[in-house]
């Protein structure tokens, strides 16, 4: 345990009534808010303050089947898929307006359930609204192709049809942002959906349901289940009435969901883990690179698939650069998520904090060098972990290649860019990476050779709805966001046409007898 005075810890104040009143919610199936058929409730307590944040009706398998049935019937009826792109676009824009009108409530609930700083939660809801608006533009731009080069009596065309019913399974680290990377694009394409947020952070997803109907989304088009991944995941991934599963979460659960979904050849989209390197060259913009490393690893308490959890530093500057990162890390404010300037809140739950501490212990056992932190901070709920930096001499050590999902930076050194790229590529993941250098050759060489879905040059973790996001290797399958993301939720149909009289018969009376 670390003394809070040994880190830049901001203590808690008493909560106001608005901050401490628990959110109550039901399931949302076929346009109705309903209790789960088991009658059970789950409770979420704040990882920062320990108070009851929300109580949720729990869905069981029977509820999942009812939701799937509603989504299937809504899709097959054409009530959503037959709307014009313009109609769907207008509804998505109204949903965005509805979220915006409750921005503060969404952000507070998200902050209380996850423990993330309130200001960051607000930024994420603002970012999510922007994504809904971006998806609305794509609803009007979905189109196929035509082919006039098939001969004078043939025309071909491809049309993009909505894929059908989509199961969306989302995690706890960015509950509303990740939902917004999936659902508006599925809706833009004309699909219907069953959505299952993570057990710990269901609040903002179910809050969205309260906006859908008034925005004009017909009953059954979006159905929201709250409950256990194990119980609800199986029907959502295997039911023959579901056409696609989009999942964000751990690689191990993603593999299971993909295996289940493949039994009936469903389309799958997976956004999984990462062990993302930031490569620091000697000619980097020093201040900006130090700041980006600190931001990259501590943002969202490191519970971030895009976390810059590895820093690879050129050996000629390694000691000084890491000393600067240690000093800047000491300035990072940890603690009360509602206080101004706090950047790092608590970890999501006790079990997860224990796992992260287990990785730190393993690193020390393997001879890695703890430069900063490494311990819990002494505090009521006890879920705060001090910003941690570990220098490793061996890129084969556990801390260098497994996703830790906490505020833990692993530092390694390299002698030249080729070695840096080899280390960058030496994990099973390939989500994102960055390079810091003023030399364009270094930057472009790294961006071409690193196996990752996103490479940032002299910046880190920027994101725009316009730019696709997803992983190479075991970081995932498919892409979210970007112009083409709506196409992930479509099937291509080829239509071939013959013009005029058919002369070439397969069988003719003139054939030799
Ligand atoms: O994730 P899970 P957990 C990583 C991160 C973290 C680890 C464990 O390394 O430490 O995963 O987190 C649902 N069938 N990421 O255990 O279990 C679950 O209810 C279908 C990376 O919380 O993968 C939730 O809705 N679904 C990540 C979702 O899967 C199942 C974000 C994700 O939970 C299921 C979160 C099942 N059998 C964790 N079991 C990222 N890529 O950002 C669970 N779920």
SSE layout:
Blueprint: E1 9-10, H1 17-20, E2 23-25, E3 27-29, E4 32-34, E5 41-45, E6 52-57, H2 61-77, H3 85-101, H4 103-114, H5 118-139, E7 145-147, E8 154-162, E9 165-169, H6 175-180, H7 183-189, E10 192-196, H8 203-215, E11 222-224, H9 229-238, E12 244-248, H10 251-262, E13 267-271, E14 277-280, H11 286-298, E15 310-314, H12 318-331, E16 334-335, H13 350-365, E17 369-372, E18 388-391, H14 398-401, E19 408-414, H15 417-424, E20 429-430, E21 432-436, H16 440-449, E22 454-457, E23 472-473, E24 476-477, E25 490-498
Parallel strand pairs: 1-16, 2-6, 9-10, 9-12, 10-11, 12-13, 14-15, 14-21, 15-19, 18-19, 21-22
Antiparallel strand pairs: 3-4, 5-6, 7-8, 8-25, 13-24, 17-18, 20-23
Helix pairs in contact: 2-9, 3-5, 3-7, 3-8, 4-5, 5-7, 9-10, 11-12
Largest sheet, if any?
7 strands, mixed
Helical proportion, percent range: 25-40%
Question: What strand order characterises the main sheet?
Answer: 17-18-19-15-14-21-22
Outline: globular
Overall pLDDT, averaged?
Answer: 97
In percent, how much strand structure appears in the residues? Answer: 15-25%
**CATH architecture tag of the largest domain:** 3-Layer(aba) Sandwich
In total, the number of domains comes to: 2
- In CATH terms, the superfamily of the largest domain is Aldehyde Dehydrogenase, Chain A, domain 1
Query: How many strands in all?
Result: 25
Which small compounds were modeled alongside the protein? ligand TXE
Distance between the termini: 94 Å
Low-confidence stretches: none
Q: SS-based structural class? A: alpha/beta
Provide the CATH top-level class of the largest domain: Alpha Beta
């Amino acid at each position: 345990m670390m003394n809070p005075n040994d880190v830049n810890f901001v203590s808690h104040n008493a909560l106001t009534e608005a901050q401490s009143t628990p959110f109550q919610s039901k399931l949302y199936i076929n346009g109705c808010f309903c209790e789960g058929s088991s009658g059970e409730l789950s409770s979420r307590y704040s990882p920062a303050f320990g108070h009851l944040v929300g109580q949720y009706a729990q869905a069981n398998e029977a509820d999942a089947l009812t939701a799937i049935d509603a989504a299937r019937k809504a899709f097959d009826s054409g009530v959503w898929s037959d709307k014009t792109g313009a109609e769907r676009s207008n509804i998505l824009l109204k949903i965005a307006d509805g979220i915006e009108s409750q921005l503060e409530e969404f952000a507070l609930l998200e902050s209380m359930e996850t423990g993330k700083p309130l200001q960051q939660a607000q930024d994420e809801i603002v970012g999510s609204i922007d994504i809904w608006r971006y998806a609305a533009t794509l609803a009007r731009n979905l189109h196929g192709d035509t082919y006039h080069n098939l001969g004078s009596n043939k025309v071909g065309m491809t049309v993009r049809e909505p894929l059908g019913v989509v199961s969306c399974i989302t995690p706890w680290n960015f509950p509303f942002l990740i939902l917004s990377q999936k659902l508006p694009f599925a809706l833009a394409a004309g699909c219907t959906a069953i959505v299952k947020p993570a057990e710990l952070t269901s609040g903002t997803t179910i809050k969205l349901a309260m906006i859908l109907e008034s925005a004009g989304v017909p009953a059954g088009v979006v159905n929201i289940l709250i409950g256990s991944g194990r119980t609800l995941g199986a029907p959502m991934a295997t039911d023959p009435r579901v056409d696609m599963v989009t999942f964000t979460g751990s690689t191990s659960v993603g593999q299971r969901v993909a295996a289940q979904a493949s039994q009936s050849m469903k389309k799958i989209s997976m956004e999984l883990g990462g062990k993302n390197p930031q490569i620091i060259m000697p000619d980097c913009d020093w201040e900006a690179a130090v700041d980006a490393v600190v931001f990259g690893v501590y943002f969202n308490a490191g519970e971030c698939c895009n976390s810059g959890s590895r820093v690879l530093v050129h050996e000629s500057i390694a000691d000084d650069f890491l000393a600067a990162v240690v000093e800047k890390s000491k300035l990072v404010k940890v603690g009360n998520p509602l206080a101004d300037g706090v950047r790092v809140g608590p970890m999501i739950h006790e079990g997860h904090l224990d796992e992260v501490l287990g990785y730190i212990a393993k690193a020390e056992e393997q001879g890695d060098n703890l430069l900063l932190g490494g311990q819990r901070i002494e505090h009521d709920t006890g879920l705060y972990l001090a910003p941690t930096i570990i220098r490793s001499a061996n890129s084969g050590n556990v801390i260098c290649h497994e996703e830790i999902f906490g505020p833990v930076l692993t530092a390694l050194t390299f002698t030249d860019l080729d070695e840096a790229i080899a280390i960058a590529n030496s994990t099973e993941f390939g989500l994102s990476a960055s390079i810091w250098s003023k030399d364009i050759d270094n930057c472009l060489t790294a961006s071409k050779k690193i196996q990752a879905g996103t490479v940032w040059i002299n910046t880190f973790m920027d994101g725009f709805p316009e730019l696709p996001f997803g992983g190479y290797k075991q970081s995932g399958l498919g892409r979210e966001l970007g112009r083409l993301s709506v196409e992930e939720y479509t099937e291509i149909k080829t239509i071939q046409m013959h013009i005029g009289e058919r002369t070439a018969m397969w069988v003719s009376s003139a054939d030799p007898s």
